[in-house]
Amino acid sequence: MQNAGIATLALNWRYLAFEVYPEDLRSAIAGAQVMNYIGLNLTVPHKLLAMDIVDELDETATTWGAVNTIQFEGKTTMGEWRPLREFTDPPRETRARGFNTDAEAITRSLQEDLGMNLQGASVLLLGAGGAGRTAALKLAAEKVARLFIVNRTPNKAEEIGSEIRRRHPEVKVALAYPAEPVDLMLNATSVGLKAADALPFDETQFSLRKVSAVYDMVYDPAETPLCKAAKSFGCRVSNGLGMLLYQGAKALEIWTGCPAPVQEMRRALEKKVYGS
Ligand code: ATR
């Protein structure tokens, strides 16, 4: 996806993947920095650890409490910090700035892939792990009216519920299945990663009949058990590929300063994940 975007923008850059032990994250970031890398993406479990490692935190990182994108910056002779892409010769002094592009990708994918208008909406969120927390806080920031959070381990849902009540008191939060219909069911659990998985909610307590649209953050398999069941109930349905795409597109925009070629990136991503 990133290399397709880079090629479309005709940049002489490469995007490479490295596996790094959490205890080596600090030296990995420092290594990339001294080699004048343009930037990095980080995934689980590095997103939280990087908060204490980078030199600067963008507002997106402080708001969502996690770093998934780093941009390296250099100091100009005038003493100004600028992205590394703007330097012809490597700057003497560099620093790492952390961003979060995950939260924005959630709402962009909900809007573009599902046509969701979140303001005033009623949402059932399944899952209260890292992805569930970011989704819950972002939905609240987008001014959903009601948020129902259900998780296998209830105290994690309770913690997120308290955080939302504190940060967004206008949003009505409940930690149970809704009795009334909802506009959106959002699956942020990892249930569905295996085609044989059960549905990520308790069918004795809630029915897809009460749901207009279903978003499953899982994207592989392309049609998760939840997506399949939701279609049979006539819901609008999307899997989570758009979320992966848009967090990457935003990262590329940070590194390049240019709009990302989203269609080319989507095609490459679909080919990689689904082979077509
Ligand atoms: P991520 O960063 O992708 O959110 P995570 O923080 O490990 O990953 O969260 C995984 C989510 O899937 C959690 O909500 C987890 O529920 P618990 O908090 O009870 O662990 C949920 N999950 C994983 N396996 C599950 C299962 N078999 N049934 C129900 N929920 C499950």
How are the secondary structure elements laid out?
Blueprint (H helix, E strand, L loop, with lengths): L1 H7 L16 H10 L4 E3 L4 H4 L6 E2 L1 H6 L4 E7 L5 E3 L10 E6 L2 H13 L7 E5 L3 H12 L4 E5 L3 H14 L4 E3 L7 E6 L23 E6 L8 H8 L3 E4 L1 H16 L5 H13 L2
Parallel strand pairs: 2-5, 6-7, 6-9, 7-8, 9-10, 10-11
Antiparallel strand pairs: 1-3, 3-4, 3-5
The structure holds 2'-monophosphoadenosine-5'-diphosphate.
What does this structure look like?
It is a single chain. The chain is globular. The strands form 2 sheets. It has a 6-stranded parallel β-sheet with strand order 8-7-6-9-10-11, sandwiched between helices. Strands 1, 2, 3, 4 and 5 form a 5-stranded mixed β-sheet that branches. The protein has 276 residues and is α/β, with parallel strands linked by helices. Helix 1 (2-8) runs antiparallel to helix 10, helix 5 crosses helix 6 and helix 5 crosses helix 9. The model has no long low-confidence stretch (mean pLDDT 97). 37% of the residues lie in helices and 18% in strands. The chain is built from 10 helices and 11 strands. 2'-monophosphoadenosine-5'-diphosphate is lined by residues 44, 127-132, 151-153, 156, 188-191.
